[in-house]
């Protein structure tokens, strides 16, 4: 049976077809949460099976591929670390909930497992299958499903809302607005590149429908991430096309027509900016921060009127309005985690404080992925977690620096912008490394870029 899995070429394609299934899984997850009120969602179960198959596939090719062997050793080391991590937190945390801890660690591990498996698939099977074509086609199908669901749900007034109060935004039939925004932000540059290379005549404007639908969806979510992703992607796309035209480099498609279409989309974005949800939401957030500051000032005045308070040593500076607006008040949770970490024993500083830190009442993540990874897995865990990403980054940069002008061509500019958007969103809004539904797209793009650069 194991030999059949190792040699099964249909399984290789299934790993890529799974990309197109992502929106369907997310819709079923929404149904499980909203209608059935269950946390054991379809998405969690299906993605755990997919991750297990990915890890097993690497292990089965231990002898036939040096990359699979190294990847398998890494995953085994990561597994040993997770066991030590759970043991330390079982003994150290004031509140330890095993299922929540394991669930968080599985979500966190998903990115590296699928990243290593995709990298292996591209390197080992690219000669037998047109995996690059499968990559683009399945991303395209996934984006079309998301875009059409968003459009239909908004038109039929069946969309879920991104926010439960004050702010405005729509998530279609998807439960998590932040995750949906991150997915589309990573996908959009891929869609734009696909449209550019296949547009040879004006009548090929239909190829830009996925770009338009994804951009519309990002704007309607109502987050700063969505709006920024559209503007950045279109600007980089246009700049890379202009660079290619000036250099007169060989590129598939008619770059002049693509430049006109991209510029038109940028102008439309500028025109609709005053009426998109994020514009209203920014002012709503500023008003909220002003109210919070006023309440804090009144409380301080009351305390001063009651009498001098005991002097306390302040270890960290509290968040200000600018940082709260930029991070949507996530900096307040970051401040709390810094306090947790300062008071944590040395063993937790090394292997992390686990899900929610050393909380006393209810666990809450910072929703800034790099900080969440550091505080939850500690110094050793953070280094170990980001080793694969550092390896791929170093490998790609080493090869691209030999032909630096390639970076400014549409293909590389947009692939790199997709990755940078994903990594940037992980810092500012989170829900990338900690969300399997998002991290699979980022892992796929990184693996494809690494393969393409290595091949060329």
Structural account:
- With 456 residues, the chain is mostly helical.
- It contains 18 helices and 2 strands.
- β1 and β2 form a beta hairpin.
- α6 packs parallel to α18.
- The longest helix is centred in the last third of the chain and has 32 residues.
- Classify the beta-strand content into a percent band: under 5%
Backbone structural class: mainly alpha
Q: What is the typical, i.e. mean, pLDDT?
A: 89
The biggest beta sheet is recorded as:
2 strands, antiparallel
Low-pLDDT segments: 311-316
Query: Helices and strands, in N-to-C order?
Result: HHHHHHHEEHHHHHHHHHHH
Shape: globular
Q: How far apart, in Å, are the first and last alpha carbons?
A: 36 Å
Task: Give the fraction of residues assigned to helices.
Answer: over 70%
The number of helical segments is 18
Tally of extended strands? Answer: 2
Measured on Cα atoms, how large is the radius of gyration?
23 Å
Widest β-sheet, arrangement of strands = 1-2
**Oligomeric grouping of the chains:** single chain
